[in-house]
Design goal:
Elements lengths: L14 H5 L3 H10 L6 H6 L1 E7 L2 E6 L14 H17 L6 E12 L9 E10 L3 E10 L5 E13 L5
Antiparallel strand pairs: 1-2, 2-4, 3-6, 4-5, 5-6
Amino acid sequence: MAQKIATTFDELPDRADLASRSGLEFMQDVVAGRLAGPPIGATLGFRPILAEEGRVIFEGTPEFSATNPMRGLHGGWYGAILDSCMGCAVMTRVPRGSIYTTLEYKINITRAIPLGMAVRATGTVDHAGRSTGIASGEIRGIDDGRLYATGSTTCLIMKAPDIG
């Protein structure tokens, strides 16, 4: 099944979709296209391609729309794809009835990603407890395997709001 991307709030997964699945089931349903993914990925040119317990992989290709005034890729693009893969990795460890949100994240850009170059961002959980999740991530070129950026995040894990 092809991955779906929400184009309206009504197409985004609702609270019942969140509460009825574990975080891993939720992420796998987004990857498989059973639930619509958020529009930020379409806007910035990346999407999740794999979700397994403790690890999520995104692929993306930065384009001209993500260029900074110095004609390079804006650092926010690195941050957005790393925040996404690391946070979603934490999501895979969130139990049914709970949700997460990013508390903080940090990125280190090691080299510039050329516009139009396909990359893979991998997020891996380092710790997932009752109230916090910690993950690390990296961006590598799909064709060259070179490291372009690394990141780390701390996420807050909490009970989902009551449905009603």
